[in-house]
Amino acid sequence: MTSLAAAARRAAPVFACIGLLAAWQVASLALKNDSFPTAIEAIRAIPDILGDKESLINILASLRRMAIGFAIAVLVSIPLGLLMGRSRAVAAFFNPLLMVIYPVPKAALMPIIMLWLGVGDITKTLVIFLGVSLPVIYHSFEGAKAVEEKMLWSGAAMGLSSVQRLVRIVLPAALPEILTGCRTGLVLALITMITSEMIARQSGAGNILFNALDMGQYDTVFAMIIIVGAMGICLDAIFERVRARLVRWSEPQFDMPLSFS
Amino acid sequence: MKVVPSRSNEWVGPVTSQRPASAIIEIDRVSQVFQTSARKDHLALSDISLTIEEGAFVSILGPSGCGKSTLLYIVGGFVSPTSGGAKMKGKTITGPGPDRGPVFQEFALFPWKTVLGNVMYGPRQQGVRPTEAEVQSRALIEMVGLKGYENFYPKELSGGMKQRVALARTLAYHPEVLLMDEPFGALDAHTRTRLQNDLLNIWERDRKTVLFVTHSVDEAVFLSDKVVMMSKSPGRIRQVIDIDLPRPRRRNELLLDPRYQKYVVDIERMFDEVDDPGSRS
Fold first, then answer.
1. What is the Rg, in whole angstroms, of the alpha carbon atoms belonging to chain B?
2. pLDDT score of B14 more than 70
3. Residues in CB range of A84: below 8 A, 6 or more apart
4. Out of A151, A159, A253, closest to residue B110 by CB
5. If you measure CA to CA, which chain A residue comes closest to B104?
């Protein structure tokens, strides 16, 4: 029984993907629209993209910018969020600033940033950085705020200085929450990566997509959408593995049995 | 049926609660004012002076809201009093330090560390070498009855077990004073009794000074040399009662002892007086 349930659980995502593709196929056949290729046509176009050296270089350049933007954002945002969570003065200073930046679509800032820094890597990486920072800051802030006072007192009694308490108690205690923010940030990094390349059309995965759109190569457009989606799924799966490993101590021990299983 | 206490010589231990002792903690005219939400000042502690002798087990007893935990936090250095001050061995307390080890009702264990990791944390921070810290910590874990659980994470333990770990973690860095803040308050009655017994056994071995906050009268009488009865609004010391019961104390014997019973009844009556809003002037 349990092995059957486990097998079903493992197969479920595969069924979901097949179901989605099947629905796409049917919808496309029914609509008979030139700008809406069938799933099979789109999938057929994937090897052409991945086989092309130039496209591959473009996609890797995108991923590189994304990785750099994400890494810098995480390295800056976690300490800032933790400090905000533990110091009212720091929170009072940064909160209004972040509240102004939060609702602004980061891509909307791109024209201005392009004006200052050009259309190159720096601009795009900066936009990715901005996109990733806010959720990571927010979750680090919330995580740090929620750290039990008595835990910090226990550390203080052992002789930990305030900096040591921040690094050795607040950081690990808030880690589950921080990683939730990083996971959101990772997806946002992918989204801002594509949008930045859509605005600053020069290179990258987004550029391939929109060039194809301009030229009416709709199978390539949809193939790129599949590739970007797959990258998102892979990155998220890798991140989820790392996350689960880092915060094993906080996860519930057993899967909660669902009421219908 | 009338309970007739036995008067056999099993009570006469080599150690009694009257021992020559010197002051280790001096609390001098401490007052604590908290600002409530309505910008009104709330006097949590009013003019508290108390001397705690080295090696004594002192309980602070009182209804909730009498500031007994706050008083403990002031001694711990976690909270600064609004006026007055506390001294540890003649030195004014300005902050937390490893000479005063807290044990909280909330356990406050480090959830990302195993049982062993939690207990080793203090000694490692104090610069004890890892191998040595591990040997000491394993011995402490065994002493609190958790041998075999060294590699468990706190989330895998029951409340009673967590509090045992918390006690071992604090004992591991050898504080001179244990500050226990309703440590058994979150536990069920049975677990509570067992932990009281075990704490007493551990304490009777090395006689550390203990400041123990509780709102349970029998817990205070059972464990303490001295019970400090507090009243609330504002928090004041109502009376200090010496508990003149011989040690080592055994629960099954003590419960039958009329002296113990009288302490409990008297202090409970006093408790009702301080807790009854009608009796306040």
1. 19
2. no
3. A90, A91, A94, A95, A137, A140, A141, A144
4. A151
5. A150
Q: Report the SS3 class of residue B44.
A: strand
Nearest to A153 among B78, B110, B121 (CB): B78
CATH of domain A37-248: 1.10.3720.10
Cβ of residue B126 closer than 8 Å to a chain A Cβ: yes
Chain A contact probe: residue of B75, B110, B163, B177 with most A CBs at under 10 A:
B110
Interchain CB contact of B110 with A (< 8 Å) = yes
Chain A residues near residue B108 by CB distance under 8 angstroms? 148, 150-151, 153-154
Q: Which residues of A touch B170 (CB under 8 A)?
A: 154, 157
* Burial tier of A22 (Cβ tally within 10 Å: 0-12, 13-18, 19+): exposed
A interface residues, B as partner, C-beta within 8 Å: 148, 150-151, 153-154, 156-160, 169, 172-173, 175, 247, 249-250, 253
- Tokens 């070498």 map to which residue? B129
The SS3 call for residue B265 is helix
Walk across the sheet containing B177-181 and list its strands. Answer: B100-104, B177-181, B209-214, B57-61, B226-231, B236-242
Return the half-sphere exposure (C-beta side, CA atoms, 13 A cut-off) of residue A161.
Answer: 2
CA B183 to chain A, closest CA, distance in angstroms equals 13
Q: What is the pLDDT of residues B61-86, one digit of tens each?
A: 998 888 899 999 999 999 999 999 99
CATH topology (fold) of B23-99+177-281: Rossmann fold (3.40.50)
The domains of chain B are located at 23-99+177-281, 109-174
Best CA proximity match to A206, nearest among A72, A101, A110: A110
Short-list B220, B110, B213, B127, CA closest to B165: B110
Q: Do residues B216 and B68 lie in contact, with contact meaning Cβ atoms separated by under 8 Å?
A: no
Please tell me which residue, A238 or A258, carries the higher pLDDT value. Answer: A238
Tell me whether residues A172 and B173 touch, CB distance under 8 A: no
Instruction: Report which residue type is found at B90.
Output: G
> Inter-chain contact B108–A250, Cβ cutoff 8 Å?
no
First-residue to last-residue Cα distance in chain A:
10
> How high is the mean pLDDT of chain B?
88
CB B49 within 8 A of CB B27: yes
Tens of pLDDT, residue by residue over A122-148, are: 999 999 999 999 999 999 999 999 999
Q: Which tens digit of pLDDT belongs to each residue from B171-199?
A: 999 999 999 999 999 899 999 999 999 99
B169 interaction partners in chain A (CB closer than 8 Å): 154
Instruction: Pick B153's closest partner by Cβ from A151, A169, A249.
Output: A249
